[in-house]
Design brief:
The chain is an alpha+beta fold and about 210 residues long. The chain has seven helices and seven strands. The longest helix is centred in the middle third of the chain and has 27 residues. It starts with 10 loop residues before the first strand and ends in a 6-residue tail after the last helix. The model has no long low-confidence stretch (mean pLDDT about 90).
Length: about 210
């Protein structure tokens, strides 16, 4: 049996890859549930056995350690040396700055499931409106054709318009949070390996993840 030990003085925090994995689909496996629980806290939780049990929903400490180890090996969680609180500010004040870090071109927006944009960085207003509406239409297409895509082994729910070399020109990346489906629309190469992505998902999770799944 593997013996695990926790490093003292650390606080649990998702990596950008872990935060994106947690909200990229609604299939709730144990790692996804665990990371989602971390993202629903108002502040980072100390790395203790008690907190692992609370966040994982597992009563067996050994299984908690195994889950944490798996997430750590996959690069989905990390330990911070200082406590952090979630970005408790008005969404309209913080979203544009968070979004601007996620695109090589600086053109990115966040849309809701009705096809309206909540914030935009770099896109003109009219373009942001049209792209947001398109994101809702793509979601409808994906829902109706998900069986075909699943049969092809395509589990991602992201869509893109690509150039002749297969590079994304416009990408649509859904985020499933609570009963909401948000979409990040990015022009050009996405830069998701940024701390701002964690802050974005953390902010949305605290506000919306308590709502029941649709």
């Amino acid at each position: 049996m593997n013996q695990y030990s926790l490093t003292e003085g650390l606080y649990l925090y998702p990596t950008p890859a872990g935060a994106y994995y947690a909200v990229s689909a609604n299939d709730l496996d144990k790692p996804r549930q665990f990371i989602r629980q971390i993202l629903q806290q108002l502040e980072t939780q100390a790395l203790t056995t008690e907190n692992l049990i609370k966040l994982s929903g597992l009563s067996d400490p050994q299984k908690c350690f195994e889950l944490l180890y798996r997430c750590q090996k996959l690069g989905w969680v990390q330990g911070l040396t200082a406590k952090r609180a979630y970005p408790d500010q008005l969404l309209e004040n913080i979203l544009p700055n968070l979004l601007g870090k996620m695109s090589e071109s600086g053109k990115v927006l966040l849309a809701d499931m009705q096809g309206f944009y909540l914030a935009s960085h770099g896109f003109p207003h009219e373009v942001a409106e049209e792209l947001s509406a398109l994101s809702a239409e793509l979601a409808s297409i994906h829902k109706h054709r998900s069986g075909v895509l699943s049969n092809l082994g395509l589990t991602s729910q992201s869509w893109a318009i690509v150039d002749v070399f297969g590079n994304s020109q416009i990408g649509f990346w859904p985020l499933f949070i609570g009963k909401n489906r948000f979409v990040i629309v990015i022009s050009g190469v996405p830069h998701f390996n940024q701390p701002e992505l964690v802050d974005l998902i953390w902010t949305l999770s605290v506000r919306y993840a308590g709502q029941s799944q649709a």
